[in-house]
Amino acid sequence: MKIVSLITARAGSKGIHQKNIIDINGYPLIWYTINASQKSKVHETWVSTDSPMIAATAEKYGAKVIWRPKELADDIIMPDLSLVHFAENVDFDILVFIQPTSPLLCHYHINKGINMMTEYDSVFSAYKEHWLPRWDKNANPIDWDINNRPRRQDIEEMYVENGALYITTKQNLLKSKLRYSGNIGIVEMPIGQSFQVDTNDDLELIKKII
Predict the structure, then answer these.
(1) Is residue 170 in some structural domain?
(2) In this structure, is residue 146 part of a structural domain?
(3) What is the 3-state secondary structure (H, E, C) of the chain?
(4) Looking at residue 51, which CATH number applies to its domain?
(5) For residues 125 and 174, what is the distance between their CA atoms, to the nearest angstrom?
(6) How far is CA 167 from CA 9, 24, 156, 208, in A?
(7) Of 15, 56, 91, 163, which residue is least crowded by CB atoms under 10 Å?
(8) How many C-alpha atoms does 169 have within 13 Å on its Cβ side?
């Protein structure tokens, strides 16, 4: 059973220039997920990219590189197609898809997800969220009544996908063309380890946490 990870890291980034290799406390952002993968049960760590700079950084830290076609590297295409491209070109049984914007992901989260694959067709990471009153842009309550505000403890907790980790089989990926399919399980992560680096504010926060 061959287990590989794939970190998708394209060149373009609207929020932060060269986000995937920007320095965070002495290491490029992508190093944190490469390191987590290398410490886990994963046999090979790969990076899918269209950037020579990202490729060089990935190889420096021991990851393998697969070049992503330009048509799969814009900011409109979902990463699922890059996973399919990888599956069509690399041999594996189980794929761990990791996003480089999740530097707080740890190897034990990856291992937990891999272990769950004996029970599920695919899994993804999420954190548990308590109910909070949500409003739309016109200040209308979403799914609750302002005249009958519920108590937090009376509302069932929900899981929020945090975007850090997805695991599936090669067979299911090629059949569904999706990062998760079939009988899906959840790898629970603490909210404190679920932060994504998408904006400069996120970047400053992560620098203080790590």
Answers:
(1) yes
(2) no
(3) CCEEEEEECCCCCCCCCCHHHCEECCEEHHHHHHHHHHCCCCCEEEEEECCHHHHHHHHHCCCEEEECCHHHCCCCCCCHHHHHHHHCCCCCCEEEEECCCCCCCCHHHHHHHHHHCCCCCEEEEEEEECCCCCECCCCCECCCCCCCCCCHHHCCCEEEEEEEEEEEEHHHHHHHCCCCCCCEEEEECCHHHCCCCCCHHHHHHHHHHC
(4) 3.90.550.10
(5) 21
(6) 17, 26, 26, 29
(7) 91
(8) 16
Q: How confident is the model at residue 79 (pLDDT cuts 50, 70, 90)?
A: confident
73: Cβ–Cβ under 8 A, 6 or more apart, which residues? 10, 11, 12, 50
Give residue 72's domain range.
Answer: 3-127+161-209
Query: pTM of the entire structure?
Result: 0.90
Q: Would you put residue 112 in left (φ > 0), alpha (ψ -120 to 50) or beta?
A: alpha
Q: What is the pLDDT of residues 11-61, one digit of tens each?
A: 876 668 889 999 999 999 999 999 999 999 999 999 999 999 999 999 999
Residue 134 lies inside a defined structural domain of this protein: no
* Tally of domains within the chain: 1
Residue 150: inside a domain: no
